[in-house]
Amino acid sequence: MENTSALRNWLKKFDSNHPFLIAGPCSAETEEQVLNIAYQLKDSNVSVLRAGIWKPRTRPGNFEGVGALGLSWLEKAKKETGLLTTTEVANPIHVELALKHNVDILWIGARTTVSPFVVQEIAEALKGTDKTVLIKNPVNPDLALWLGAVERFYKQDIKNIGVIHRGFSSYGENKYRNIPEWQIPIDLQQKFPDLPLILDPSHIAGNRKLIFELCQTALDLNYDGFMIETHHDPDNAWSDAAQQITPDRLKEITEQLTTRNKKS
Ligand code: PEP
Ligand code: MN
């Protein structure tokens, strides 16, 4: 298997005193909201603005994203703030539209990683591009399924690949919305040591109070970065309100995190 040092080298371009940081709302809601958050993140350690445009919701009836319209908001935010952008793609049409609107990084959601047919279609749609792709773990604790998705992108010559650990679903009441199962990403890293590993504490926690401790655990395990849901008015967010934090809180968290085992 080829290694992914291309992406790791790319990550090194960012300030090495801080983990690579992706932040922004769970969902793009309005143009004003996207720009407001982007401007608040502009002069911080954040390198990439995230916002979901197509939102896979477990049950119907919830806000399912603004759709392609949101891509022009991301493009505008990028132009005005200089932040790179990322959004979730869940089929080849999403890929085509995201490429057209110059989204820098595409992420594969946890409900997509479970489906080899869809992963294959997305990987083929990206063949021949130099896009960066971040692959979230599948919702279920199945390492082979996660590895399989990574391999499908490699096989289409996509070189800039990273993985996002967002926890695993389970039944019943738990401290976490999605159980971290830290051993699974550790096992994945053993197989692909050059694959940058990013923590999504927001979807693991489901609750903003747990974000800091999850980030600290990940840093102690030498993770490369974070994707953290950040909203100017978290309590009134249209999706995932309980787990989002403000840009000010994000700044506090990143300042308080200590790097104990920094990669050389
Ligand atoms: C998200 O990042 O907003 C999202 C839907 O994540 P996941 O695929 O991890 O549930
Ligand atoms: Mn979310």
Automatic annotation (TrEMBL):
Keyword S-adenosyl-L-methionine among record annotations: no
Alphabetized GO MF terms: chorismate mutase activity
EC number in record: 5.4.99.5
Keywords: Isomerase, Transferase
The protein's name: chorismate mutase
Source organism: Mesonia maritima
Region of the whole protein represented: 1 to 264 of 360
